[in-house]
Write a structure and sequence with these properties.
elongated; alpha+beta; four-stranded antiparallel β-sheet; 3 helices; 2 domains
Length: 127
Amino acid sequence: MPRCEDWPAGFISLTRDQFATWWIIDTAKGIIHPIGQSYVEPPRDEPWLVGSVPRDIQDYFDEIYNEIKALKMVSCPKGKKSWNRTIQPYTWDVGSVVSQTLRKHSWPDTLDRDAYLQELEEVYPEA
């Protein structure tokens, strides 16, 4: 991944981490570059796009919203015993525990957030 200083003017990073998906907004074109989800060879004249498949911003975030609402991907808050803050598929150990706990506490309609978070503090997923 080239350094942010090498990006063209108008590129803004919403997220950035060595082990996460980078969300890079190209303000000139009005698109998002989710970088890090897969490897894609960048165009020769745009090496900063390594791993990027440009997407319409609204479509991209609508897709994420729908996956989270349906609990296909779950936001995992930091627990005392187990995980760090991540977003994981519901099929992974931690994602499965979080998904089940969210459903138990009436996700998405009437989520009892305090009870949900309290229960997660006591959970330690089987590895």
